[in-house]
Amino acid sequence: MTKETKTLSGLNFNMWKQDENTIHLSIKNPHEGKESWLTSIEHTDKHNGEQRARTHNNLFRDLKSILEQNGKW
What we know:
By secondary structure, this protein is of the alpha+beta class.
């Protein structure tokens, strides 16, 4: 019996710094469903420390680290 996986691989993922508190994400889907979408991750500093729908400080920190390590921040 083959173990079922919930992983969807083969997506095209790009990210870039929009400003000091915003990272934009572009995702292209070659599978069924929406073809592509654009979204963002924001740090709470952008909103005077308030949590908002797009504020995810831990994820922002990790994505920023990847951009910094590759000279894109």
